[in-house]
Structure formats: C-alpha cells, structure tokens
Amino acid sequence: MKIIECPRDAMQGLKQFIPTEVKIDYINTLLKVGFDTIDFGSFVSPKAIPQMRDTAEVLANLDLDNTRSKLLAIIANVRGAEDAAQHQQINYLGFPLSVSETFQERNTNKSIAEAMEQLAHIQDICGRHDKSLVTYISMGFGNPYGDPWNAETVIRFVEDLDKLGVKIISLSDTIGMSNPEIITYLFGSLIPAFPHIEFGAHLHTTPATWQEKVDAAYNAGCLRFDGAIRGYGGCPMAKDELVGNMATENLVGYFENKGLNLELNKEAFQAAMAQSVAVFS
C-alpha cells in the first residue's frame, strides 16, 4: 500500500503566500512520517501558481537523510520537466492530463493533442535523468463542462499512455464527481488489463462520501492513494466548499482497520497534524 501525501495540492490554491520557511518546516515534518511519497511542489510558471514559486528553495532545504519518502514535483510542460529533472533529489515528475479538452486548456494552456505530444518528450526527459513519470488523468470520473465523457474514453487514454511507456497512472476525481460504481468499473477494468502499470487514486470528496470511494478503489485492486492532511485543498471549480482532498488521516485509519501495517511514525504524524493547522490557517 502506498500513501502519497500532497502538501503541494493542499497549498497551491491559497491566495495568501505561505512563507518559504513554513513550507520547509512542514514538509520536513511530513518526511519523518514514512509516507511512500511527498508531492511537495511544482515547477510551473509563478504567474500561474504563485504559491509554488519557491519550490526550488524549499527543495534545497529539505532534510532527506533520514526519510524513506520519495519526492514528486508537478510539471505542466517540457520546460518545467527539464527544470525539475536537474534536481537529483526528485524521484517523480507528475503531469496532469485531462480527458476534458476545456480543462486541459485551462490547466496547462494546451489542447489534449498538444499535451500528449509534450508527454512523449517528458517521458524521454525522465528516462535520461532517472526519473519516473506519474500521469494524472484529471476529470477522470466526469467533468462539468459538457465535454464528451465516458469510462471507455478514460480507458483509451490509458492505452495511449501505455504506448508511451508510462508506468504510473493516477485517476483523478478532480471535482468530486465520482461514485463507487464508476470507481469500481474503471479500476476493475484497468488493473487486470494493464498489470505492468501502477494505478493510483487521487480522489476529491466530501466528508460524507470519502469511505465509499476508498472502499470501491481498494476492493477493485488499487494500492496507491493520494491524500492531504485534514483534507486541505481541492479543486476550486468543484463549486462545493465541502469538496476537498482526501483526508490522509482517513486513509490511514481505513487501511489500519483493514489490518495493513503502513509502518508510519505515529508521533511524527500527530506532529504534522498539529502543525498543519497553523500552516493552513
């Protein structure tokens, strides 16, 4: 079981800039917990995501000597991938690919066709710099724009990514539209059909529906889940203030109740929980 903690996703939409030293202290606490991966920052235009303009400085001050966690940085184009790839500490580059043409344009200023072309170059960059590419299929469970969507479209996207050699694909419930039936269908179809690909779940949810979504993904074979402590963050286009990131503490409790030993440092986890209140206040 892999839990990916996503402080970057929790922070990036906040208008008030979180001081760099606060980010460094918080992520250093998260590194002590023992999560598989920390989605810590992004190499994108500071005009687009001003909150993440200090990612390189944050990275330079992380204590990576006593952690088993790997680092993931989000990128939106070839230039960002080249910048991120220069940092030896980063293990994964994450790229958001949308099945919604509208959202792809809004999110990365590219068409889907252009994004796929960029992905081929980014995959090559990852190969040359010993990084792994994580592709997020955003709007993976539906979209609010009226763009055509069905589960078979998502499966075709996976087929195209498989041809590029992508080995990690995370299905993203960008605005909290998923339900157990579609989660079960997609993971239940994809995991057996592409056993060489690691599939993840990046689920946005309301407090009332998180468990049924995790249940569906886990029972369909998903073993990689993204979360953010206290459910901070989420997509502003959800138009529902209760829709946030999957709360990491819910994931931890769920899997421990299933008898899984996540090998987390509980003291560090509680410290991060407490610290998060001040970080996101």
What is the assigned CATH homologous superfamily? Aldolase class I
What is the architecture at the second tier of CATH? Alpha-Beta Barrel
Radius of gyration: 17 Å
Question: What is the count of structural domains?
Answer: 1
Strand arrangement, major sheet: 8-1-2-3-4-5-6-7-9
CATH topology: TIM Barrel
| Structural class category | alpha/beta
Structural commentary:
Belongs to the HMG-CoA lyase family. Residues 1-266 form the Pyruvate carboxyltransferase domain. The chain has a single domain, classed as Aldolase class I (TIM Barrel, Alpha-Beta Barrel), CATH 3.20.20. 42% of the residues lie in helices and 18% in strands. It is built from 11 helices and 9 strands. The protein has helices at residues 7-11, 20-31, 55-60, 78-85, 101-108, 112-128, 151-164, 180-193, 210-219, 248-257, 266-279, and strands at residues 2-5, 37-43, 70-75, 92-98, 132-138, 168-173, 198-205, 224-227, 244-245. The longest helix has 17 residues, at 112-128. It is globular, with a radius of gyration of 17 Å.
Topology:
Blueprint: E1 2-5, H1 7-11, H2 20-31, E2 37-43, H3 55-60, E3 70-75, H4 78-85, E4 92-98, H5 101-108, H6 112-128, E5 132-138, H7 151-164, E6 168-173, H8 180-193, E7 198-205, H9 210-219, E8 224-227, E9 244-245, H10 248-257, H11 266-279
Parallel strand pairs: 1-2, 1-8, 2-3, 3-4, 4-5, 5-6, 6-7
Antiparallel strand pairs: 7-9
Helix pairs in contact: 2-11, 4-6, 7-8, 8-9
Key words describing this protein structure:
TIM Barrel; 18% strand; 281 residues; alpha/beta
